[in-house]
Amino acid sequence: MNPVGKPGKTGSLMPVEEALARLLQMAEATPILEREYLPLAQVDGRVLAQDLVSTLDLPPWPNSAMDGYALNLADWTGEPMPVSQKVFAGQSPEPLKPGTCARIFTGAPVPAGADCVEMQENAEILADGSVKFIEPMSIGQNIRPQGQETTPGELILPAGTRLGPIEQGLAASLGCAGLTVVRKVRVAVLSTGDELVEPGQALGPGQIYNSNRVLLCSWLQRLGCEVVDAGILPDDLSRTRQRLGELQDVDLILSTGGVSVGEADFLGIALREEGELTLWKLAIKPGKPLTFGHFRNVPVIGLPGNPASTLVTFALLTRPYLLRRQGVQAVEPLKFRVPAGFDWPQAGNRREYLRGRLEQGRATIYRNQSSGVLRSAAWADGLVEVMEGRTLVVGEDVMFIPLSDLLD
Amino acid sequence: MNPVGKPGKTGSLMPVEEALARLLQMAEATPILEREYLPLAQVDGRVLAQDLVSTLDLPPWPNSAMDGYALNLADWTGEPMPVSQKVFAGQSPEPLKPGTCARIFTGAPVPAGADCVEMQENAEILADGSVKFIEPMSIGQNIRPQGQETTPGELILPAGTRLGPIEQGLAASLGCAGLTVVRKVRVAVLSTGDELVEPGQALGPGQIYNSNRVLLCSWLQRLGCEVVDAGILPDDLSRTRQRLGELQDVDLILSTGGVSVGEADFLGIALREEGELTLWKLAIKPGKPLTFGHFRNVPVIGLPGNPASTLVTFALLTRPYLLRRQGVQAVEPLKFRVPAGFDWPQAGNRREYLRGRLEQGRATIYRNQSSGVLRSAAWADGLVEVMEGRTLVVGEDVMFIPLSDLLD
């Protein structure tokens, strides 16, 4: 175990990127290998298990980008042209009769022999039904060529892609009725602490409500995980051992609030006896104590129990770990450089993730950054990252991570 | 109907903000008024129907922010102090015996009479069990006072708040076992066009796969809507009328691809006959044609059928409309000012929403911005907004809207 850092001494705390690199390495050592084939409508939030390769041309034939008229530009003399056919989307047109044009609608196949579509707004329909074109035209205009978007054999989405509505739509456009995805990660959520009471029950002396359980269960579901709600772990060694033993078929035990050097830490004792336990002191605030270990063969991550600490360490360390176990390469959240709307006069020895909002383009922060409840996070749009040792005055740049990107 | 705009003439196209303002006004005129009470675990993605007000102090009692020792600072002379009790989280301590300190753990109630907690790293345990404090201390240090986060009667979340994991956690910390939320918006998704074939089926001449259906169904579910999949509307007037008539209990009919001035537009005919229809030509690209109307009393939004156009108009216009119908005030997505990583030499008369990525802090765009498929959007992290009439060189600022914020 690393020694505890004192203000000003950052050497003894583990930087966030080192903790992340270690977790990702461990995730890569224990990938989820099982796959399942699911109907396309059911893959939102899942991870693609094999490359999606196009088997067709998109578009499958040249088609019109406009409602208008298809013609062969070489036939156009400036004189009105008769309309020889009408092509709706979904129809299969005749080859274009020389010297004529075809009425055509958006998405309809362009008849063989036509090389140009003029939009209807630039066409004048004469009394005899022929059409006069009033603007200059060019070959290929308003035609989407066959195979413009993709051709057979092209890689469309690599294995490891997280799937959402857009990827579902893209796969549909290629005719896929389903996709092979990585099995859901099974995560057991354990809260530790005798002080915890479930919402809806009466609060006794010294007790507080368990907020991390619903936070994590809900978030894990958004990340495409299967959640095993393992409840509150009693502060008792033999029951702790028993409860952990019941979780041997999960991919991760995620606990909050329990593992420390405290004397009442039965989870820590159980892990030391029947597995392994590493306590990290991270250069992160809120956060700092993070546990990684295993019980028998099941990996265990122990997050700090203060809600804002749970949120930040889950978002920045556990989320990427869980995605990487499913084979996702892109696990970093989006980060934007924005001007600070606040002063930060005193440098800290831990990297701060302040709960903040974007207001008139500036990062503003919630007045009370206590890690005790989630009020700051509910107010916030994102996490404002202030690096170790950094001070700030209004207008200097900080990094802003949208919460929506982390919750997704 | 507005006349069609020509390049350079922006007056004839409706600006995006005007279209949004009109849609939001219509949403406010038809709010979803029904509510339901749900267990807290089930409210992710839903909208809070009544203010959430605190009924308790948080924390409920002063508690320790550290593992350490609680003492009354006035008792401290610099000499070692005996330890008179040990307080774990979840316990209810005795009042502090004068002249002594209490062993205390993170989250445990601070005993009455103690006004300071020193962390264990700054304490030396002597052979007789007494504790010597080696650093200066101050009143209130490492104590989280009762009611620091909230007190009874405080507004925690206003009605109209969208609920996600963080809000669920926050409500849990206040002891709420459930919340009253707005009834889900029921949205019927209709695709129009004879050229559409469902994925998994064989593609005939002139046909393409229906990608908008799964895109929208999946996205609507993320937005907390109840989706009625109304399939592909046949290009036939009487069957169109019949299908629309079957959808009288939904809150919105959302169609793609059908409504235009085209001759085969049976949806448009049905709306004109038994409702109302407004065709907007929007200053948006991809996008432009958007329909708003109703069939009998059910609102209808018709999005353009090209997948990227469907995506952009859904994200920027339909999503806020649907949220506002549930009473959500904050319907604008996050927008970040970032330097462009591309040149944009030719100004357009429509506002462009390019599918882009953030690369080294700059907005880069997908090489093919065709609206024909979703490939650009699957590649992208966000929409890069280029205003009407604007040109850009590398390094100039553009606005970047994260897709994760729109998909959430």
Question: What's the multimeric state?
Answer: homodimer
CATH homologous superfamily placement of the largest domain in chain A: MoaB/Mog-like domain
Instruction: Specify the overall morphology of chain A.
Output: elongated
Class of secondary structure makeup of chain A = alpha/beta
Question: How far do the termini of chain A sit from each other?
Answer: 33 Å
CATH class of the largest domain in chain A: Alpha Beta
Helix content of chain A: 10-25%
Extract low-pLDDT stretches of chain A.
1-10
Computed over alpha carbons, the radius of gyration of chain A is 30 Å
Total number of helices of chain A = 8
Keywords summarizing the entry:
disordered N terminus; 28% strand; 20% helix; homodimer; 8 helices; Molybdenum Cofactor Biosythetic Enzyme, Chain A; six-stranded mixed beta sheet; Molybdopterin biosynthesis moea protein, domain 2; 408 residues; alpha/beta
General description of the model:
2 copies of one chain form a homodimer. By secondary structure, chain A is α/β, with parallel strands linked by helices. In chain A, strand 20 (289-295) and strand 21 form a beta hairpin. Helices cover 20% and strands 28% of the residues of chain A. Chain A has helices spanning 16-29, 165-173, 212-222, 237-245, 266-274, 307-325, 375-379, 403-406, and strands spanning 35-39, 52-53, 63-64, 68-71, 83-87, 101-104, 116-119, 123-125, 131-133, 143-144, 155-157, 178-182, 186-192, 196-197, 208-209, 226-233, 252-256, 275-281, 284-285, 289-295, 298-303, 336-339, 351-359, 362-365, 382-386, 397-402. The two termini of chain A are 33 Å apart. Chain A is built from 8 helices and 26 strands. The longest helix of chain A has 19 residues, at 307-325. A 6-stranded mixed β-sheet of chain A has the order 16-13-17-21-20-18, sandwiched between helices. In chain A, strands 19, 22, 23, 24, 25 and 26 form a 6-stranded mixed β-sheet that branches. Chain A has 4 domains: 16-34 and 184-325, MoaB/Mog-like domain (Molybdenum Cofactor Biosythetic Enzyme, Chain A, 3-Layer(aba) Sandwich), CATH 3.40.980; 36-56 and 152-182, Molybdopterin biosynthesis moea protein, domain 2; 63-144, Beta Complex (Molybdopterin biosynthesis moeA protein, domain 3); 336-406, MoeA, C-terminal, domain IV (Beta-clip), CATH 2.40.340. The interface between A and B is large, with 106 and 106 residues.
